Amino acid sequence: MSTNNPGTGTRAEAHTVALELNGERRELEVQPWTTLLDLLREQLGLTGTKKGCDHGQCGACTVLLNGRRINSCLTLAVMQDGASIVTVEGLANGGELHPMQAAFVEHDAYQCGYCTPGQICSAIGMIGEGRAQSKEDVREQMSGNLCRCGAYPNILAAIDDAAEQTREALGKESNP
Amino acid sequence: MNPFTYSRPGDIDEAISLFSAGSRYIAGGTNLLDLMKENVTRPAGLIDITRLPLHDIEETAEGGLRIGALVSNSDLAWDPRIEQRYPLLAKAILAGASPQLRNMATTGGNLLQRTRCYYFYDTGTPCNKREPGTGCSARDGLNRIHAILGHSPECIAVHPSDMCVAMAALEAMVIVQGAGGERRIPFADFHRLPGDTPELDNNLEDGELITALELPAQSFADHSAYLKVRDRASYAFALVSVAAALEMKDGTIHAARIALGGVAHKPWRKPAAEALLTDQPATPESFEKAADVLLEGASGFNDNAFKIELARRSIVRALSEAAAGDAQ
User: Fold this and answer.
1) Of B6, B33, B45, which is closest to A74 when you measure between CB atoms?
2) Which of A98, B279, B281, B302 is deepest in the core (most CB within 10 A)?
């Protein structure tokens, strides 16, 4: 863990953080003001996670942090030292798409595709939370992910279709 | 964002000792980082408090619950003790923000989120809350979301929280720690009205850290309702919200709490309105009288005068739902 002393001067220094990123352990140097989203996209070239509004209003930057869905634009990379992060790039198993990814393809659950990685990560996070019992619940609990193309009916169909397989996949992860 | 220093203390005393002028504590970061990106807030240093041991929900000796300041909004709303004993609080939390934000945002941080007044965020316009003495752009500007109660010539902003409205109705206690030790602040005294110092949202001293919130045993579990009225069905701030909580027996009210959100610089309560309901039958007439008292002195601006009638109807509806006992 890095705890640089801020009292030693006005110039901020880079910090070292250790992350498990898509299953791989990484040690990275980050500036204090680098958001997790900017670390992923700018520093690591993982551009699957999208920058939509950069203010936590659109959900395009959604990733799974220790299994929970969050807006990566509103957290600092330096604060996530020791965390496990899964982005859309880490969902597939080799060449085999995650059931939620496959369902999005199957149901044509996008138009321009910009919100899709966030939608998929959010949907997986939601199923992990286990609080969505009805289609109405899914609509409410996916409200943090906007789709400007309006592909919502197909997004909901994809989530509905992949829910059970996703639950099974999550169960295997938590009970290795 | 402007450059800043970063530190990550391991205990509360260390966190407080690291605080200096220009520092800010950070936990969920969902509002603070947004304000930093917009250049509204420019801390010289962030003190990351997420590793402090403030993540637990515990029973208190008085039969209530003590909620660590770092418990996330999701964990709080979904805690079985909160769901069963304080459904008003669970419902208010789940009415706010999005699932992603609720996973990040903390209990303590929710109290400290700042207004969503457009002009507070727009550094190109005058704003007494952002830059004291520059004026209020909202008074004669776009003010659909602004205050109808407790506003001042200097500021008509509202506090945006849902959770705090329920906390106000439940009379939570805010536990804070600073260089001078621990203080317990009743929820009603935590936030403040803008007056001529709208830059101050609350009564925390510099460097004080919220460590916990305590809920009293009285939970109004059988008769409470949280009603949030907004421009879209989900993921929007309240135009008006109402936390209504009643103790009832055989159709008669024995205790009442009503708190309003979206209408003032702090969750709005008025003991006289609650006293008016005590020992009264739970009827629409009683609720209308309480609403009148609660909204005494309300005044709107160009775009938001509709909120006064909206609030009146929302209060009656929320109280009716609470009395019916089918929690909404």
Assistant:
1) B33
2) A98
